[in-house]
Design goal:
alpha/beta; six-stranded mixed sheet; Nitrilase/N-carbamoyl-D-aminoacid amidohydrolase; binds acetamide
Length: about 260
């Protein structure tokens, strides 16, 4: 069995140092195999180009350092959203960090609304990483609405999809039930709470972080506005069984020879 968790909280826009300190406080002494934190958990979401420049960091930067130090005392692996600076560009990224430091970086493929003004979209196909004794897939927030993202992760063998989010639309928590059911994988969505404004538009984050099982069961959905840490035990091997109770094997019965349009 593995212990997986999410932390739902409210980062302060543009205050990277304060947010890192807060994360370190909230996570101190929290033991789990994998802990998922929200998207852009260190920078805040409604960034201007100026705030982005001030809060962006390399993947092996101060947030990875802080999480590595934490991991050395808790044994956990962390998935945390950061504004990443690399090769003269910015990415909306998630770092996977464990006791030995940075393990992997995922750059969000599907940007949402104003994010196109700030970030370059990731250019690497979704891939699976072995860590904490599991096969982990990473995706970020709006990636959920493109079912191909999670399908690619599941086909690559992911058992647990780690999904940092800053959700503002209401649909994702329910949609993730279908994503897990159709791919027979576990997923932890770690969303944030609170609100921010950008160019006069108010953004209200919907909380509702959750763990969903391959059977589509929601285990521990958070409220819309509570700061909370939620831990659950899972057996990741359940995600290797792609059969439904009807006896259908959802992967063996796919008809990829008829799905060519998906590659257009
Ligand atoms: C989102 O992708 N942060 C809505």
């Amino acid at each position: 069995m593995k212990r997986v968790a999410y932390l739902q909280f409210s980062p302060r826009l543009g205050e990277a140092e304060a947010n890192r300190k807060r994360l370190a406080e909230l996570l101190a002494g929290r033991h789990a195999d994998v802990i998922v934190l929200p998207e852009l958990a260190v920078s805040g979401y409604a960034l201007t180009p100026d705030l982005l420049a001030r809060t962006a960091e390399p993947a092996e930067g101060p947030t990875a350092e802080m999480l590595t130090a934490l991991a050395r005392s808790t044994g956990a692996h962390y998935v945390c959203g950061i504004a990443e600076r690399a090769d003269g560009a910015h990415y909306n990224s998630a770092v996977l960090v464990g006791p030995r430091g940075l393990v992997s970086v995922y750059r969000k493929l599907h940007l949402f609304g104003f994010e196109f003004e700030l970030f370059a979209p990731g250019a690497q196909a979704p891939r699976v990483v072995e860590a904490a004794g599991m096969r982990l897939g990473l995706m970020i927030c709006f990636d959920w609405i493109f079912p191909e993202t999670m399908r690619c992760l599941a086909l690559a063998g992911a058992q647990l999809v780690c999904h940092p989010a800053n959700l503002v639309l209401p649909h994702c928590p329910e949609a993730m039930i279908t994503r897990c059911l159709e791919n027979r994988v576990f997923a932890v969505t770690a969303n944030r709470i609170g609100d921010e404004s950008r160019d006069g538009t108010e953004l209200y984050f919907i909380g509702s972080s959750q763990l969903v099982t391959p059977a589509g069961e929601v285990r521990g959905r958070a409220d819309v506005d509570e700061e909370t840490f939620h831990l659950a035990e899972i057996n990741p091997d359940e995600a290797d069984d792609k059969t439904l109770s009807s006896g259908n094997d959802l992967f063996a019965e796919r008809r990829p020879e008829l799905y060519g349009r998906l590659l257009d």
